[in-house]
Structures are given as C-alpha cells and as structure tokens.
Amino acid sequence: MKIFYKKHVTSITMISLLLISTGCVSKKTTPSPFNNTIANNIERTAKSLLGTDYQYGANGPSQFDCSGFTKYVFSQQGINLPRISKDQAKIGEYLQAKQLQKGDLVFFDSESSSIISHVGIYLEQGNFIHASSAKDKVTISTLNSNYYTKHFKWGRRVTNINSVMR
C-alpha cells in the first residue's frame, strides 16, 4: 500500500508541475513586483517621448506611428512586439477595460471599420499614451472620451512574458 500511495503522489506532483509549466492552470492577473517594475519602466520610457511627432509608418525614435511607438517602448524592456497593431492585438493575455493595469496595450477600431487600427499603452486612472494621428504627436488621452469609449476593443498584457517574438 505504501508503494502504491507513493507512486500516486509522485504522479500527481509531476502532472501538477507539467500543467503549471505549460500554462494550463489559471494564473492571477495581478502583476508581480518584477512586472510592476517593467510597467513603471514602460511608463517612464513612453512619457519621455511625449510630444514626439506622428508619422505614418515611422518606427522612432524621432517619429512614430501608433504601433511603431508601442513596439519601440516595449523593445526598451526586452519585449519584442509585432510591427502592426492588428498583430499586436493577438498576443498576450486578453483583457477587458476593467482589468487594465499600467503597461497594458489598449486596442481600438475606427469609424470606418471594426478591425484593429490603433494601439496605445495604458497608464492608470483611465489614461493611455499613444502616437495620435489626430494630434500629430505622442500624447496622453482618456479612455473615457466619447471617441475612445466607443472604439475601445480590448487590452492585452504582455509584461508577464519574457519575449513575445524573437
């Protein structure tokens, strides 16, 4: 009986470790102190670029479009994002607006289409930073404005992973 019990405990332990390491077990969405550090560094880098000119297709650091901005800011923390917003919108942990935390990506559609056409970085208290074609620069806006409330699609958390793309 002792050998049977020991084998089952070992098997259950191994299966549990396998499930945890492969991501098959639910994880908390509260960031660890390490991820808070990354989020703070993302915020600091993004805010250092406030006022930088908007230019469609630009990757920075002297000009950005929205996805070039997010790609650049996250790359400074060793997180490699795809180049365009619709591809960035497919990676990381899916989030609803009420789940957003500092450093999360926020995605929007436009008046003319329901596909992802814009991305920014959530700061806190309903604010996000982005390279805005309407303001022609990197700026801070609120998700609570009529436009962004209407066009918000979802958020993504990519600060819980070491590197998104190689």
Report on this model:
The protein has 166 residues and is an alpha+beta fold. It has helices spanning 2-21, 33-48, 66-75, 85-88, 146-151; strands spanning 53-54, 63-64, 93-95, 105-110, 113-124, 127-132, 137-142, 152-157. The chain has a 6-stranded antiparallel sheet with strand order 3-8-4-5-6-7. A hairpin with a 2-residue loop joins strand 4 and strand 5. It is globular, with a radius of gyration of 19 Å. The protein starts with a helix and ends in a 9-residue tail after the last strand. The model is unreliable at 4-29 (pLDDT under 50).
Topology of this structure?
Elements: H1 2-21, H2 33-48, E1 53-54, E2 63-64, H3 66-75, H4 85-88, E3 93-95, E4 105-110, E5 113-124, E6 127-132, E7 137-142, H5 146-151, E8 152-157
Parallel strand pairs: 1-2
Antiparallel strand pairs: 3-8, 4-5, 4-8, 5-6, 6-7
Gist?
With 166 residues, this protein is an alpha+beta fold. The chain is built from five helices and eight strands, in the order ααββααβββββαβ.
* H/E element order: HHEEHHEEEEEHE
> How much of the sequence is in beta strands?
25-35%
Number of domains: 1
What is the CATH architecture assignment? Alpha-Beta Complex
Cα separation of the termini: 50 Å
- Residue ranges: pLDDT <50 for 5 or more in a row? 4-29
And the CATH topology? endopeptidase fold (from Nostoc punctiforme)
DSSP summary: helix tally: 5
What is the β-strand count?
Answer: 8
Query: Over all CA atoms, what is the radius of gyration?
Result: 19 Å
Helix content: 25-40%
Q: Tell me the CATH superfamily.
A: endopeptidase domain like (from Nostoc punctiforme)
Which sequence of strands runs across the widest sheet? 3-8-4-5-6-7
Which structural class is indicated by helix and strand composition? alpha+beta
